[in-house]
Amino acid sequence: MLDELTPDQKKQLVDFIPDIIVETPQSRYAALVYAKFLDGLQGLAVDCFKDWLKKNVLPTLLVLMNMQEQ
Question: Where are the domains of the chain?
Fold first, then answer.
């Protein structure tokens, strides 16, 4: 599904990561965008995306929240 997204849509997904992590005025909208994106993924794509989030986003979140050393 990522291949079907325009460069602007891909950038929007990346730009919304901080709004997902920290409560901001954009957080609800960002969550809706991600929910719609995840609904479009199927089977293996969902597992791959979740695995990518765990490997790339979660460690950064833990460091930012001072819950894990760098």
Answer: 2-64
